[in-house]
Automatic annotation (TrEMBL), chain A:
Gene Ontology cellular-component terms listed: plasma membrane
Organism, as annotated: Hansschlegelia quercus
Record family assignment: Belongs to the ABC transporter superfamily.
Cellular compartments annotated: Cell inner membrane
Class of this enzyme: translocase
Domain ABC transporter stretches: 30-271
Nucleotide-binding in keyword set: yes
Enzymatic reactions: a quaternary ammonium(out) + ATP + H2O = a quaternary ammonium(in) + ADP + phosphate + H(+)
Name by which UniProt lists this protein: Quaternary amine transport ATP-binding protein
SUPFAM superfamilies in alphabetical order: P-loop containing nucleoside triphosphate hydrolases
GO MF: ABC-type quaternary ammonium compound transporting activity; ATP binding; ATP hydrolysis activity
Coiled coil spans: none
UniProtKB/TrEMBL annotation, chain B:
Family, per entry: Belongs to the binding-protein-dependent transport system permease family.
Lineage: superkingdom: Bacteria
Keyword list, A-Z: Cell membrane, Membrane, Transmembrane, Transmembrane helix, Transport
Membrane topology summary: Multi-pass membrane protein
Protein name, as recorded: ABC transporter permease subunit
Organism: Hansschlegelia quercus
Length: 355, 668
């Protein structure tokens, strides 16, 4: 992460979830490194859905967990809120280990600090839009007027004003998910889980919802764990991405890191059809400045290469400026090299996929 | 191989083995007095606890009387308007019109008071059934072990004929209308329990997780999330439960005998007053349809989440109150004036008599033909059925040889030319059954066929179940009765599947036929089984043929429904592909639609058998032999042991056929 040091909001340490009969006993008996444990558990007919996962989420960060279906990402996000009881490991939220909380304490945390959006919306069919959004408040025992005011506010936030009295079945998929989002935000959570929130929507609606999500996040600045299987979606919204495969973390990094230096071919395949020029930023191909450069035509570190093309067609190098000082440069040569290397990796990824 | 061995074994049984009578008839000496054991165990239980049950009877009698008094005291105008408003609320003005027409019919026909008595019983039994069924369902949903136990019990309860468990209830609770209520409540809790389990299990995981993430406690989770999300399925359960209660309240008239509408029908049937029977039967039919549509209407609405405005309720309440006050000054609104009543019963009787006089000969001829050429051979076999009196000639050895030659050639052709050994075996079996009759074949041979079939269909587990079922039937001394019942049911099932299947295909291919059949099927399905006896009895008098007709009327619904559903459900893309390849309409039906409809058709066959078996018990009222009659006789003697043994035998047959057919579907 760049910028000033920020507090860690949520962290998980060596988190495991093993499904199957007698999973707990089998797990406590298994020995050795992660590899070995996974092999032992699989051999015993068990399914290690999340294996030895550790990562941190910083305050205000949007962490995207991605992987193909069956890679354990949905189980992982449920372990973070203990909707699914982890087999082993720690989940540290605001300095407290969630695993050590009693049922009542956990309920309190969920009521006030967490919100979650589901792929299939999870709206209560017998309640109106307003009542659905107010539902978490009602569960907390908030007064009627309070509830209505807060719910109406949330509905306004997601752009559904006027549909307060509709029932979920009268809404389109995109509208239903807006209700889901409004509901998850109603209690003003510190931590926001989104489990493939836009995967069930049509591509155009999906794009629109992603844009709105970015707009919301821009104002709300929540700490977010976002699940998706769509790398382009991850690129668009992620500060950092966790790539999972078969229950294990393959790589954690900024989107550009994944594109520029994928940990293995699995990641390479994921990033194969990424629009490189939009993901790679000036900072990624920064070169030291040989002689002092004027600040004319300067760019910032996080400017995507795409925005530099026109300028680089005119001059060979552009200065990178951070807080008024030239710190490096972008050259046509460097850009060519980086793009060429990334597309070569992408090609390998593609050919692997076809094979 | 195994089949060849069984065939040889049967051959030996029916020829050389005939000298060993144990092979042929299940020997009485081998039977165990199971019915006595049950009877004694039951008596041992009843003796000390009788005060409890009699106390419960007394406790239920009070609210029943109060409810009946209340419904009797309320002005008809208020109740009828209430029904119409309810119908409107449930599904709109068309049902409201129907409710108005039904109320008018009941009033004008002079059936108001027995109808109210029946409704009072339904109104008392329904909450009992709904609440206990709901409780069981929740328990079954929460605890895995409980679910297995409950599902097993429910399956038994659904396959044991209604009359059979009227008997222990009768013994426990004594005679009278309360027995009907208890029996109805127990009988009807099954669908509620099942729908509760289903509904709760169907709540989408995301809704449950959303509830958890909102921080619901266990209680909030159940009452605010799971229960309302399952509401639609729960109301479907209420609908089925009310219908079951209603049907059972009607049937309970057989033992109850208060002045309710079921008793009226039974009385007219016993006195052969068919005009009156038909008219009062129509009351039951109208009530059944009305209750069904109202509850189903509310269930359908629950999914949509629409809500009535408070104003509407206030207005409705005000209207009812106004009518009540008006009735206090205008007696015509309070008691329906007798001079407005009109009963066409006598006219109807006249028409019926004329009809019977005109077509009686033709109908008797038809009936005799079916009995002599179809029912008798199947029951006692060609060997006994063919006589100069029935067929006009006696069976000669040459004819017997000819019969077996034809069977042999057909079976051989199937095996050698078609290479279909299963078909060949089926032909041999059919020939064997037809020759000796279901009641005449060697029991051990029949048992061997069933056991081998179950083993091949469902492996060791099904074999074990079949062995247990056959052992129970044989050892309890019900074998002969069972075969007797089996023949009637099998015949009805075959007729239903052929006739119903054809109708189903026709309806699937022709929208007009489908639209024509749908209301008839709906009506047949909502009607209490009891009512269906009336027309059959009217036309063909007491006897097995009448029972057959009644069973067919009831059990023909599932094959039509399922076949139509299956054939219509064939994937349009595949049908299009077949058409593109140049298939004719018949070819599409034969090669595409019917094979694709197979799972649905198998379900239909299964439902047909279960329906036929359940109707069999009711049909005992119009004269059958076998298990159903045994139950009916036990009922009149309040013999819990005999009744339960016969009932369990029917349940064994039903559960075995159900498992065998499901095994067939699984293999496909």
């Amino acid at each position: 992460m760049t910028g000033p040091a920020v507090e860690t909001k949520l962290a998980c340490r060596n988190l495991w979830k093993v499904f199957g009969d007698g999973a707990d006993r089998a797990f406590s008996r298994s020995r050795g490194e992660t590899e070995q444990k996974v092999a032992t558990l699989r051999g015993g007919g068990l399914i290690p859905a999340v294996s030895d996962v550790s990562f941190d989420v910083a305050e205000g960060e949007c962490l995207v967990i991605m992987g193909l279906s069956g890679s354990g990402k949905s189980t992982l996000v449920r372990c973070l809120s203990r909707l699914v009881e982890p087999t082993a490991g720690e989940v540290i939220f605001e300095g407290r280990d969630l695993m050590k909380l009693s049922g009542a304490e956990l309920t309190e945390v969920r009521r006030h600090k967490m919100g979650m959006v589901f792929q299939s919306f999870g709206l209560l069919p017998h309640l109106t839009v307003l009542e659905n959004v107010a539902f978490p408040l009602r569960i907390q025992g908030k007064g009627d007027a309070d509830r209505r005011r807060r719910a109406a506010e949330m509905i306004g936030l997601v752009g559904l004003s006027g549909r307060e009295d509709a029932f979920p079945h009268q809404l389109s998929g995109g509208q239903q998910q807006r209700v889901g989002i409004a509901r998850s935000l109603a209690v003003g959570p510190d931590l926001w889980f989104l489990d493939e929130p836009f995967s069930a929507l049509d591509p155009l609606i999906r794009k629109q919802m992603q844009d709105e999500f970015l707009r919301l996040q821009h104002t709300l600045k929540k700490t977010i764990v976002f699940i998706t299987h769509d790398f382009l979606e991850a690129l668009k919204i992620a500060d950092r991405v966790v790539i999972m495969r078969d229950g294990r973390v393959v790589q954690i990094g900024r989107p550009a890191d994944l594109v520029l230096s994928p940990a293995d071919e699995y990641v390479a395949r994921f990033v194969a059809d990424v629009p490189l020029l939009r993901v790679i930023t000036a900072g990624d191909i920064e070169e030291p400045v040989p002689v002092s450069l004027s600040t004319n035509g300067s760019v910032s570190r996080d400017a995507p290469l795409e925005s530099l093309l026109a300028k680089l067609a005119e001059v060979d190098a552009l200065p990178i400026v951070e807080s008024g000082k030239v710190v490096g440069q972008v050259t046509t040569h460097g850009l060519m090299k980086a793009v060429a290397a990334a597309s070569a990796r992408a090609d390998r990824g593609w050919s692997l996929e076809r094979a | 191989m195994a089949w060849a061995a069984v065939a040889l074994f049967i051959l030996w049984c029916e020829t050389g083995g005939r000298s060993v009578p144990q092979m042929h008839l299940f020997p009485a000496a081998w039977t165990l007095p199971i019915h006595q054991w049950i009877g004694e165990a039951f008596a041992a239980f009843t003796g000390p606890s009788q005060w409890l049950f009699r106390g419960a009877t007394a406790a239920l009698q009070a609210p029943l009387s109060a409810l009946q008094a209340m419904l009797g005291a309320l002005p008809w105008a208020v109740l009828a308007t209430g029904a119409i408003l309810l119908a409107y609320r449930a599904s709109g003005w068309r049902l409201a019109m129907f409710a108005a027409a039904a109320s008018a019919y009941v009033l004008v026909g002079g059936y108001w008071s027995p109808t109210m008595n029946t409704l009072a019983a339904v109104a008392l039994a329904t909450p009992l059934a709904v609440l206990s069924g709901f409780g069981l369902g929740v328990l079954g949903y929460r605890r895995r072990w409980a679910r297995d136990v409950i599902l097993g019990l429910l399956e038994m309860m659904q396959t044991i004929p209604t009359f059979a468990y009227l008997i222990p209830i009768l013994v426990l609770f004594g005679f009278g209308p309360v027995v009907g209520i208890v029996a109805s409540a127990i009988y009807a809790l099954g669908p509620m329990a099942q729908n509760t389990m289903l509904g709760l299990a169907q709540v989408p995981p995301s809704i449950r997780e959303a509830g958890l993430m909102c921080g619901c406690t266990d209680r909030q989770m159940f009452w605010r999330v799971e229960f309302p999300s399952a509401r639609r399925q729960l109301l479907v359960g209420v609908n089925q439960t009310v219908m079951a209660v209603f049907a059972m309240v009607i049937i309970a008239a057989v033992i109850g005998g208060s002045d309710d509408i079921g008793f009226r029908v039974l009385q007219t049937m016993r006195q052969a007053q068919f005009g009156q029977g038909l008219l009062s039967g129509l009351v039951i039919a109208l009530l059944a349809i009305l209750i069904d549509r109202i509850t189903a209407g509310f269930a359908a609405k629950a999914g949509k989440g629409a809500r009535a405005s408070r104003a509407w309720f206030m207005l409705a309440a005000a209207a009812l109150l106004g009518l009540y006050l008006a009735a206090q000054v205008a007696p015509a609104l309070d008691r329906f004036p007798s001079e407005w009543a009109f009963s066409p019963a006598e006219t109807l009787n006249g028409w019926l008599l004329a009809f019977v006089a005109r077509f009686g000969d033709a109908m008797t001829a038809f009936k005799n033909a079916v009995i002599f050429f179809l029912m008798l051979p199947l029951r006692i076999g060609l060997i006994k059925a063919v006589s100069p009196f029935t067929w006009g000639f006696a069976l000669t050895p040459v004819m017997i040889a000819g019969f077996w030659a034809v069977v042999g050639i057909m079976a051989g052709a199937a095996l050698l030319i078609g290479g279909r050994w299963r078909l060949s075996c089926a032909i041999l079996c059919a020939g064997w059954l037809l020759f000796f009759g279901t009641t005449g074949v060697a029991w051990i041979g029949f048992a061997a066929v069933i056991l081998l079939l179950s083993y091949q269909l469902g492996g060791a587990r099904l074999l074990a179940f079949a062995t247990a079922a056959i052992a129970f039937i044989a050892l309890s001394g019900s074998w002969a009765d069972t075969m007797q019942s089996l023949y009637l049911c099998a015949l009805a099932v075959v007729i239903c599947i052929l006739g119903g299947g054809a109708l189903g295909v026709w309806a699937a291919e022709n929208d007009r036929v489908s639209a024509f059949l749908r209301p008839i099927l709906d009506a047949l399905q909502t009607m209490p089984q009891f009512v269906l006896l009336i027309p059959a009895l009217m036309l063909f008098q007491v006897g097995e043929f009448t029972a057959l007709i009644a069973i067919v009327i009831y059990a023909i619904v599932p094959p039509i429904r399922y076949v139509e559903h299956g054939v219509r459900g064939a994937s349009p893309e595949i049908v299009e592909a077949a058409r593109q390849m140049g298939c004719s309409r018949l070819q599409i039906l034969r090669h595409v639609k019917l094979p694709m409809a197979r799972p649905s058709i198998m379900l239909g066959v299964n439902q047909t058998i279960l329906s036929a078996l359940s109707m069999l018990a009711i049909a005992a009222l119009v004269g059958t032999q076998g298990l159903a009659q045994a139950i009916y006789v036990a009922l009149s003697r309040a013999d819990a042991g005999k009744g339960l043994v016969a009932g369990l035998s029917i349940a064994c047959v039903a559960m075995l056929s159900d498992r065998m057919l499901k095994a067939v579907s699984r293999r496909a």
